Amino acid sequence: MEGADVGDDWIQQLHEWWDRHAYYPQEALLNREDGTLQIHLVIRRDGHVTEVDKLSSSGSRSIDIAGESVFRNAALQPFPNSTPQPQADIYLTLQYILIRHGAN
Known about the structure:
Elements: H1 7-21, H2 26-30, E1 35-44, E2 49-56, H3 61-71, E3 87-96
Antiparallel strand pairs: 1-2, 1-3
């Protein structure tokens, strides 16, 4: 994270937001794809995500699109009043894990 010290509570709220909004893309399920996507977000102090950049692909086009699209133009929690900076750069690693049962 760069640009703003948003605090641990705000970061926890970001995790909870991801848990509520994330989805596993149907195409990745059908193709039995999983992977780890790394993205960079620019977030204004009002919580609006103004930029989403893929830093490292998951190896699955549908997973990359899903991970990026969840955050594109998202409205997150505003920064705490104690955070005077106008924006924060947040770097996230999103893990999409497909649980496989039995022999294939």
